[in-house]
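User: Predict the complex.
Assistant: Input components as received:
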Amino acid sequence: MTPWSAGPTPRYRPRADRPPRVNLAPRFRPRAAVLVTVLLLSAPAVARGQADTLLVDVILATTSQHVVVEAVLTTPDSTLLLPARDVAALLGLDAPPTAWTTVAELRRRFPPIEVAWYPRELRVVVDDPLGVLPATRRLTEQRQRQARGAPGPTVTRSGPFLAFAGDERQHHVTDVGYSWRGRVAVQGRYASASGSAWAVSLAPTPTVFLAYSDGERRPATVSGRLAVGPLWLAPTWQERGPVGVDGLVALGRVRLFASTRDVFVLTITGRGGDLQLGRSAGRTSARVSWGPLPASPFSVPFVP
Amino acid sequence: MIARPGIFVRSPAGLRWWPAFLLAAGLWATLATVLLGQVPSTVDLRNGRVASTIIRNPSPVETLTVAVELRERFVAGGRVTVGRAIDALVSPARFTLAPGEVQTVRLRLREPVAPGTVLGLVTTFAPASVDAAAPGSDTAPVARLVLVTRLITKVVVR
């Protein structure tokens, strides 16, 4: 009989009282040695059958991805051993050197994440609110690419909209239009300085965005945005002007942004830190950052 | 105060049936809850895939031990019988449920089973107190009657 089954289901407890730690550099800790010892000691027990094999659903909450793995619940200490390779693939980590991992080991390697084990539901839920796991960062960057240059995926409501803005020079601008679920929008604008203009935009899927705009004192413009997998492309055509293209490609830890406006940005993301090299308007700049806030691969490092 | 006394005068026989009817309905609802609410009647399972179901302890007072098996299922003459155990991973196969608790159970076949086959999920409920020594059994022989409930539900292989 499994000893854990008689107790109440542990509740998910947010660890807001614990300040997030972002130092993810691997280093020796005594607890790691204890964990390895536990894993080694549990191996004979698994071989002798003194453990329950469980089909556990491991869920990465931030990406909604999950995998059902054959885990082992050792007795009598009720340590849940998860197949390290499957868990690493879900979290976007490199192939691990060991065959098994545990909930405690995941918490130790990535202190900002929260890992909860629900034995009654046979679920392990991994929450990564700070986005330190590679899988979370990949999804976040993918959403950023889809939202850049287009209405964000959060715009899902339909209805008319109206906006009025002014400043101390007594200049004012009025926007009015209608948006249908963020997919189709018709917009008119009247600005006291530049006259009237109008635009129509179309976003049939989150990956594609097209827009056409024209106005009294502005040339007709066609712009678009394509965000497919690691590729982000935003071409722009203006009447009586050259075609401009902005593009970004993400390959592993490297992101390269280039534009026909002579702007280049190379971003290399590491475990907890980023390195950026950029060139714009004939000036080269670099930036090294460390912490949970990732650098934008679309922006040249700004040095005022 | 007595606005409609005729109701009680006109149908005294109907009134006599109400307590019996309410008692029967209550017993039926309790029995249905106890027997039918423990395990879903049908689980769909695909070769190589994982199927999930839930098992509940509907008793308000008694802790139950539960054993789950996957076996061949036969129906002949309106009677359901089970055959050999199927090679499958039942997770978990044995556990304990406190009153009102629910346990998720996952199944994965380890041997090929033809699509369309209906297997039997054999779930056995026994009181957890049966493992403890009966009061007074250390000084005198004690006879105990233990009610064990076994439910055989369908697992349809797709």
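Residues 1-28, 44-49 of chain A have pLDDT under 50 and may be disordered.
Let me know if you want any component modeled separately.
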